[in-house]
């Protein structure tokens, strides 16, 4: 397949990677989520703008259409980044024609790793969210967005069997990936035990539970533990949680999408804490 050529503004050389390798063209069925050397590709106006405004993001390269450059002029100027001018078709070749890139692609290093202790030290008093093998990046992105809206203290995920913190997730999060601290852990059951040792009430969302989330006071530090759609919480995760609670429903469908469940739980927690 013929490689795409990127001609930046000012007649400079086509966009190339270090080592003189150009990014490979791809299709929507085989879309890369990160650069080969471990760097992350972020796309979409809100995701890229938030990344540029995040001093913890180490920016490598920025590809933009003329229109996107105008829209993000302030964020680009604040970073003193020299964007490389491309066309929408150039980005389609890189990311796939179905990707809603909005004319911008940022190549950046991943955010610095946070340990659970780091997260607890820097997080505010809002609830923590703990995800048990939620692998859909759209769901995790939506959860992050709700976490930012309702003031969650942070997000905990396992390093394996979780959605990668890359472009698709960042686009769905609409900038929240840069705002909500995320800790990646090896063992979720052990992490829940550590949270309990730190005085954190761990509530597992389980639709079959008799206890209701509406009866929780959300006083003090709380962690909401959510499982993947279909599987829900794994058995060991359920046993590790201090209590299992459900979101009350009254319609003909009793189950919720995990991102919707997270939003409802966070809203309820914020409302309860505001009353106290």
From TrEMBL:
Cellular component GO terms, alphabetical: cytosol
EC number(s) per entry: 2.1.1.-
Stored CDD domains: SpoU-like_RlmB
Name assigned to this protein: 23S rRNA (Guanosine-2'-O-)-methyltransferase rlmB, LSU rRNA Gm2251
Database matches in InterPro entries: Alpha/beta_knot_MTases (IPR029028), Ribosomal_eL30-like_sf (IPR029064), rRNA_MeTrfase_TrmH (IPR004441), SpoU_MeTrfase (IPR001537), SpoU_subst-bd (IPR013123), tRNA_m1G_MTases_N (IPR029026)
Highest taxon listed in the record's lineage: Bacteria
Keywords: Methyltransferase, Transferase
Domain RNA 2-O ribose methyltransferase substrate binding: 41-114
One Pfam family matching this protein: SpoU_sub_bind
Organism name: Hyphomicrobium sulfonivorans
GO biological process, one term: RNA processing
GO molecular function: RNA binding; RNA methyltransferase activity
PANTHER family: 23S RRNA (GUANOSINE-2'-O-)-METHYLTRANSFERASE RLMB
Region of interest (Disordered), ranges: 1-35
